[in-house]
Amino acid sequence: MENVKELFHQFIDELKNDVRNKALVTAAEKFLVEIENSSKEIREPEDLEEILRSSKTGKEKKRDLLLRFYSFFENKTGISVESDLEDKVVVDNSQERLFAILQYTQTHPIEVEAMADFFMTSTKSMGKIAASLENGQKLMGKEIKIPIEREGWKRYSKVSYHPILLNLTMPEVTAMTIGLMEVAKEEKLYSDQFERVAREIYKGLTYYGKGCLSKLIKAKGMTEAFSREIRDYEDSISDNIIAMMKTEKPGTIQINTNGTDYLFIDCFIIDNKEDSILIRTKNGKERWFSISDVYSCECHQDRNDDFE
Q: pTM of the entire structure?
């Protein structure tokens, strides 16, 4: 049988024959460098998975490459590749990987070696992730902390987290958040959970989203339930306004005056009276805005007077 490395070279050459594989060829060539530099002996195609496991970046594409190489190998040699790589989870993005690990802990014990094998990473890296989940780990701005139940040498999660990503418009987010608070008033049994979920939705929004929702929350008389979240949001706006004035640096503010439209303005903040700010745009125009209409404010410390 031909050497596995030699066959991988042939695999790359075959990829090069199709111009649509340009990005894939680049990834394959980078992976080949890792293979050549590895001290691990490559006798079987499955041995390449250990190199994938130790890779620092681009694992998803390398996994796809290996699966394609396995098909190439089987066609060339007639020998079946004994691998369960297709069933394993390989995710480059750290937040997406945490989502996947949380799902895994709902049905599996927290065994570092088994988890490292399933997620194609080192036991050292997985050990750190498992420890961070037990001690507290940020996921999309929320701290996830898994209480552990020990049974002999095995560890199990005592709770199951179900992170939800929803592709919602601002009116839909508003309806869901306000709706949860309205239901919380009537449904006493789950009122604390409804209110907590509503606050988590608020905290996950952009500055613009928080600005839109804050106005409605105040209009609905629900300020008390979101008092800390709204205060933190408004304090961050005020802090950035003060920073722009103190540093005399330009920034970008996001304005909403009619409740539906908004715009970004590159400007200096040159004055602040009561609840209003005076801005000067790059073309020299000056205008007063109510601070309550400023939905976001970012000071650009590295920009100069001509906004370059």
A: 0.56
